[in-house]
């Protein structure tokens, strides 16, 4: 999870931003990139609280989503359709991250994280907020495409 946040922060989101043409979607992803920069340090606090070492693997589903996006994005000739695709990929990633945080928070019920639990909750809340935002952009962009 920590590795996933780092890869999203330093690789996936900056690359995605280069492809996005829509101002609204660009702003939504940029704001979430700023939030995501805080997710890694918060997760490091959680690992410290439980005395565990984070693994350096991107989660397989997150890796597959990023691969799928990268393989198909370049073959979409229409910029407006490509933005719909970028928004859908962003929404899929936020759904995944939200599910991961919900699962970890469920597991954390049986572990005393002390104050570190709030770090997980803040990350989860920001993922939920980002999901709503990109979902709204996805609906708006798809609506514009339909005319
Ligand atoms: Fe996210």
Annotation field: number of helices:
5
Bound molecules: fe (ii) ion
Q: From the helix content, strand content and strand pairing, which structural class follows?
A: mainly alpha
Globally, the shape reads elongated
State the CATH architecture.
Answer: Up-down Bundle
Structural account:
It is a single chain. The protein is an all-alpha fold. It has a single domain, classed as Ferritin, core subunit, four-helix bundle (Ferritin, Up-down Bundle), CATH 1.20.1260.10. It is built from 5 helices and no strands. Bound molecules: fe (ii) ion (FE2). Fe (ii) ion binds at residues 32, 36, 94, 97, 127, 130.
Primary descriptors:
147 residues, mainly alpha, Ferritin, 82% helix, elongated
